[in-house]
Every structure is written in structure tokens, then in C-alpha cells.
Amino acid sequence: LKWLYDIIKYIGDRSRPLQEGEAVFKAGHLILCGLSEENPENIKSLCLQTSGLTSPPHEISIQIVKDVTKWKCVCSCKAGLSGFSKHIVATLIYVNKSVKLCFSIYTEYK
Length: 110
Prior knowledge:
Elements: H1 3-11, H2 15-26, E1 30-35, E2 42-47, E3 58-63, E4 72-75, H3 86-97, H4 106-109
Antiparallel strand pairs: 1-2, 2-3, 3-4
């Protein structure tokens, strides 16, 4: 994958999730991000809620395939069903900047 290009292609002309996702990433609100043990093509992450840092984190699931138009991205936040929440974008930015993702201990966290 050409990550940065693919992220921009996935987001399309939606500038708000990109700006807000970058802010979430820079704030260090992603507390866990890794590959799903069940399916290594899936990325799972947890992200602190910006409106309530002591509340349970948002759960993000991203299924990556070669065709960017077929990516399946879901977040537990209100905007998450659209597939374009700031938490999803923050996760994609994290993956873009990561050298290597490990298998997530996501289930152990919950």
C-alpha cells in the first residue's frame, strides 16, 4: 500500500476528519493500535474520547484491502458508522507513521 496516498484517496474531499484526525493523533489520544489476532488484515485501535478523557475509549476497527474504496472502517463514536470519524483517521495516520504493527492485545485491554 502507498499509505499516505491511500489515506487521502479514502478520505476524499472531506477535510474536517483529516484535520481533526491529525489533531487527535498529535494529542496522543490513541492508546492502543495493532493488527487483529483473528485477521491480520484488520487493524484495531482504542482512542481516548476528547470530550471525556476518563470515559471508556472509542473502539476502532479497520479492514484494509488493496482497493481503497472497499476499506471497511468503523468507530464506536457517533460519527463512526460513516467510516470517516476523526478517530478512524487518527488510526490511519498512526499506521502510516508506524514502521511495523504488532498484533494487538486489544482483547486483553477490554
